[in-house]
Amino acid sequence: MEIYRIKNLSFTFPLAEREALSNIDLTIQGGQFITICGKSGCGKSTLLRQLKSILTPHGQSQGEVLFHGQSLRDVDQRTQAAEIGFVLQDPDNQIVTDKVWHELAFGLESLGYDQQTIRLRVAEMASFFGIQNWFHKPVTELSGGQKQLLNLASIMAMNPSVLILDEPTSQLDPIAAVDFLETISKINRELGTTIIMTEHRLEEVLTVSDRLIVLDQGKVIADDSPAKAGEILHTIQHPMFASMPSPMQIHAGVGSGLDCPMTVKEGRQWLNVYLEDKAAAQTKVTTQSLTTPSSSVAIQFKDVWFKHERGGPDIIKDLSFEVSEGAFYCIVGGNGTGKTTTLSLISGILQPYRGKIMIHGQKHTKWNSKHITAHQLGVLPQNPASLFVKKTVELDLYEMLSDHPLSKEEKQQKVDSVVKLTELEHLLAMHPYDLSGGEQQRAALAKVLLLEPKILLLDEPTKGLDGFFKQKLGLFLRKLHHQGVTIVMVSHDVEFCAKYGGECAMFFDGSVIASHPAEQFFAGNSFYTTAANRMARHIWRDAVTIEGVIERCQTSTSLSRV
Description:
6-stranded mixed β-sheet; 36% helix
C-alpha cells in the first residue's frame, strides 16, 4: 500500500538564491524502512518537514505530496497528528510536560481519547519501551537517551501509520544510539509501521533499512537498497561514500572481488575469506603521528566536586586529571556521566564547590571570564544556536571581531578565511536559525575559530555533520593541534576520536576511569570502540581505523607474494 507519493516537489526558502529541494519524485510504500542521507544542508530535514503540514517551513513550494492518495494539504490536522508521527533531532524541543507518565498521555489527551483508552495505551507503551522503572520521574531527571525514547513512546501511543525521525541519535552515546535504533527496527518489524528517517550515523541503521535515499543539493542522486546505493556513491566517487559503514569502505579500499559486506559480522566473514591464502600482516601499521604534548600542563583538575543545587546529587565526583599543552584530548562516555559539565567547569560557566581547577598554572577563580573567553578559551557548545545573536551568518561572524583592534580589511580577511574553511559561502545572507543542524554546527565553529584560542573546547563538534565534512573538520583540528592549540573534545563519535584524537578518556559516574592514547584506548574496549576494530580485532587487535585495516590487508597481500 502506498503511504506517500511525492510528485516533482521543489522548495525554496525566502530570499534564497537556490532551491532547497529540486524536483523530488518518490513513492513510499507501507511498511518500508527508509533512510535518507546526504551532506549537511542537502535538504534532508526540509524534505521530512514537507511530509507533515504543521512542520513545513515558510517558503515557495511547487509540486505535490500525497498521503494515502490524498493531497497532504487536504488532510486535516487531527488526522495528521494521529497518523504521522515525527521525532525531532533535539529531544528537549519536543517534551511539553513535567512528568514521564503525563508526556506519554499528552498526545492522546489532545486527540480527545477517553480516560480508559489513555490508561491502556500508556501502560502498553510503557511496557513495550521498558519505561516502567522511570514512569513517575520528572522529565528533567532523564538522560538524553531516555528523553528521546520517551518522545518515541509518546508518539507511538497514538498508533501512527508512519514514523518520521530527523537524526534522532545525534545526541546519544554509541550504546544508547544502538538501543534506540533497535527499538525503531522492532517497531517496523513487529508493528509494520513505515519508518522514514534521516541519519548521519549509518553504521547501524543501514543494516535494518530497506532503502537508502541519498540527496545532494536538493536532488536525489541514489535511491536503492543500501548496498547498491553505496556502490553508486563509490562508482561516482561521491563524498558521501565516507559516511557508509566501515565494512563497505574497507572492502572498497582493499578492492577484492568478493561480495561487499554491510555489517561487522559480514565484514569478519569477508576478512576471513580474503585472508585464507595470505599471510596476515603482523607489523604495526604506522599512522600519521600527532604532535607530542609538552610537559607543561594546560588544564588541571584536582579533587573537583560539583552539583547543580544544594542537596542535589553530585554530577562531578572527586575528578582529577591533567591535559598537557598541545594535547588533543577526547572525552567519551554515556549520556549523563558529566562530560559536558566538565567542559563548563573548564570554561568557567560553572564553579565547583570543592577542589581546584588550574588553567595554565593559574587558579581558575582568579581569571576574569572575559579574559578567558577572549584570549584563552574558545568554546563550541552542544547547542550551536546559543552562539547566534545577529540576523545573518555574515553579521554573526563579524560580531566576534567587534572588540578586536583590527582594520576592516584584516577583519574581512579573517572572516573570508574561516568561511572558506567551513564552506559557508552560500549561507552568509541567511538567518542562523534557518540553517540545518549541520550548517549551524559549521557556522558556530567558524565563530569560535575566529578567536584563535589557545585552548579549544568542543562539545559534540561532529553532531549533524556528514562524513565528508567530518574529514575536513578532523584535518583542520589536526592542523590546529600541530600548531600547539590544546583541544579538549567531548564526543559520542568514537570513529572520529579514534582517527583524529591523541588521548582518550572514559567518563563514568562523574569521573575519569581510564585514559590512554587513542589507539590503545579503543583497542582495549569491547563496545566503546570502532566498527573497524570490531570487524578486524580477531586478527589485528590494535587496528582501530578504516585506514589501518585497509593498510594491513594490502600488506598481507604483498607478504603472500614474497
